[in-house]
Amino acid sequence: MEASQLGRFEAAVLPHLDAAYTLARYLMRDRHDAEDAVQDAVLRALRHFGGFRGDDGRTWLLAIVRNACHTMLHRRGRDARATEFDEEVHSEAVDTEDPEAALLRGAAQESVHHAVDRLPDEFREVIVLRELQGLSYKEISVVAGVPIGTVMSRLARARQRLQRVLGPDLEEIR
Amino acid sequence: MTCLDCTARLDAYLDQELDVVQRDDLERHLETCLECQLRHERYRALSSALRDQLPTYTAPDLLRARIDGAMRAVRTERTGTQVRRWRWTAIAASLLFVLATGYAALGIQRPASPQAAMAHEVLTSHVRSLMPDHLTDVASTDQHNVKPWFDGRLDYSPPVYDLAAQGFPLVGGRLDYVGGRPVAALVYQRRKHVINLFVWPTAQANGGTPEVTQQGYHLLHWTRGGMTYWAASDLNGEELREFARLEQQMDSVAASR
């Protein structure tokens, strides 16, 4: 790969590493798996960068990260993983935050995060992409590889579930 | 705008995905409807709770170092290999919203029974599907295109029939969510009227429940051969019953083969 192209890659993709890692954390529900998925995705992105014509490096990278995560999850089988996330996820949830601020947020955060973690993969990813990363429906449809209509119905259903689970807590959280 | 239209568009409103006309319509409705105001408040509370409380993560230094190392390796490689093209799985998205008209104005009743709750969910899905870009995920009048499209997207295979000869042409299919599960939505048309046929497996015995009429929409529900069906449309009751009868007839023909 030419040095100039490598520079272009670094400028287009590397600024979105945190967003990529955040998405991977929510999809893999494990710190180490998320790191592996992101590394795998960045290398894959590098290999395919010659075909990258757009100007939206974030959406492009997130789509590759999302696919890398799904491939890893698929390879391992979902069932075994579904039960192990509980303890780990919640002790890890605050690891990049100031401990005091995390304490103050307390149980409310725990329940919101927990509720999102218990969503099926296809619901969890649209929630993270929309609420946490602020992607438009069109961008989400590119990242998740589904039509915009499907993005809309998944978002609606995901929020209905969260409303049901969190309903009573939402007043206190606000 | 009715409460049903408002509810179906509330997500898109909060996500700032409505066009100006629809946004104004919805805001006018919110000003006059306490129930929708409260619903809007609940939606907004959820959104801000998610934004405030969900942690975001910083890529760990070790990960950055691993990526840097890989980049350095590539930099020294200087290979001349042809890089394969990344194909965007982009969907051409036209967010041209059209004004849906002709809905009867009526308040939303709170569902009383599981059956009524299901009817309400089906109805909401039907109305939501009428929003632009949402009707079909696979647009085809050919049942042999629509049926295989669901392979791998659902853990069952919905029966798909072509009723064009009988005046109900197939328009396409869509993945939707009803009753907390992904379901097949088959889209048919009668003149300008859209019919959504939701199909999913059930353990219930064959049978049907009385027709539901709500807010200008008709809903028909029946169970046959381990599949449960909900047909929703603003078509008149008589023609929708005709559609249901044809579907069941096709089912019998298929079963006797």
Helix/sheet category of chain B: alpha+beta
Strand arrangement within the widest β-sheet of chain B reads: 1-2-3-4-7-6-5
Could you estimate the helical fraction of the residues of chain A in percent? over 70%
Average pLDDT of chain B, rounded to a whole number, is 82
Please trace the helix and strand order of chain A, writing H or E for each element: HHHHHHHHHH
The H/E string of chain B reads: HHHHHEHEEEEEEH
Binned, the helix content of chain B reads 40-55%
Number of strands of chain B: 7
Overall, the morphology of chain B is globular
Strand content of chain A: under 5%
Assembly annotation: heterodimer
Measured between the Cα atoms of the first and last residue of chain B, the distance is 48 Å
Distance between the termini of chain A: 51 Å
Query: Biggest interface between protein chains, with counts per chain?
Result: A-B, 71 and 60 residues
Shape of chain A: elongated
Low-confidence stretches of chain A: 83-97
Structural class of chain A: mainly alpha
